[in-house]
Design brief:
By secondary structure, the chain is an alpha/beta fold. It has helices spanning 2-10, 21-32, 49-64, 107-125, 151-156, 162-166, 176-183, 208-212, 232-246, 251-262; strands at residues 68-71, 77-81, 91-95, 133-137, 198-200. Strands 1-2-4-3-5 form a 5-stranded mixed β-sheet. The chain binds zinc ion.
């Protein structure tokens, strides 16, 4: 039965095929049990015990799919599925599992778990890709506990130094470096050492673009609040583009950036 389905799916190569929406939904709901928040949302702020628990669950799911987990010195997680051409850099997809104090279930979590669902679908259908695929969970995208937001991706992109980021403090005077160490999610890998061919991020849009287009978001999506405003992923996008450009080109990423700037309503990268 399974092999029949695989054969059938393999015949679909080159065509669009579907992920398992129910499975993605179940994973979103499972992750949302960690760090419950207000109004059915989540409070899973960066480098807390809840963040550590969410990371462990994500790691467990990745291991079940045979992915190799990379961890850099900012605690960013890179779950890798090898491609068929070892000379090619990975295509990255991902976002963030941390939330605002009154955050929603979806937001960046959807971006990470949708990446995982892509992997699950590829594994299930036996499809190999030429490029490796890495599903990324950036540390401290939200920036409420430790300012600024997009911290680890900022270090990755060369906007901040590692030591500067480590020294950022929360309201209780605890530092990023000490809290990373405490929750056990500090890696050995140099931040920014990884090469990438492209980066895709699926992210719940909650900002003014929807209002401008008179689109009423689904009630569930409303739980994702626009605390970080519409510049959140746009800044990360621009930083990653700058980094890719410095790294000797990354045409796909630049194309994505241009697409996002010219078609903001497409929800490619929120803005
Ligand atoms: Zn976000």
């Amino acid at each position: 039965m399974a092999s029949d389905m695989n054969t059938e799916m393999m015949d679909q190569r080159g065509k669009n095929f579907r992920i398992n929406g129910d499975r993605l939904w179940d994973s979103l709901m499972e992750m949302a049990k960690i760090g419950p928040g207000v109004a059915g949302g989540n409070n899973r702020q960066t480098l807390t015990d809840e963040d550590a628990e969410g990371r462990s669950l994500y790691q467990k799911w990745c291991e079940a799919e045979g992915l190799e987990m990379g961890l850099d010195k900012m605690g960013t997680m890179f779950a890798r599925r090898e491609g068929t051409d070892p000379s090619l850099p990975p295509v990255m997809v991902g976002s963030h599992l941390d939330t605002q104090p009154t955050g929603g279930k979806y937001d960046g979590v959807l971006g990470v778990l949708a990446g995982l669902e892509i992997i699950r679908t590829l594994n299930e259908t036996g499809i190999r890709t030429r490029h490796p695929i890495e599903v990324v969970n950036w540390t401290n995208e939200e920036g409420t506990r430790f300012s600024p937001p997009m911290m680890a991706s900022g270090v990755f992109a060369g906007v901040h130094t590692l030591d500067w980021a480590y020294g950022r403090t929360d309201a209780a005077g605890k530092t990023v470096g000490a809290e990373l160490e405490r929750i056990g999610w500090i890696g050995d890998e140099e931040v920014g050492a990884r090469k990438l061919a492209a980066f895709f991020e699926l992210h719940i849009e909650q900002g003014p673009i929807l209002g401008a287009h008179r689109i009423d978001p689904d009630a569930k999506a409303r739980q994702c609040r626009p605390w970080h405003g519409a510049d959140h992923a746009a800044c990360r996008r621009d930083r990653l583009v700058a980094r890719a450009a410095r790294g000797g080109g990354c045409r796909a990423l630049r194309c994505l950036s241009e697409f996002a700037q010219h078609h903001p309503q497409q929800g490619c990268v929120h803005r």
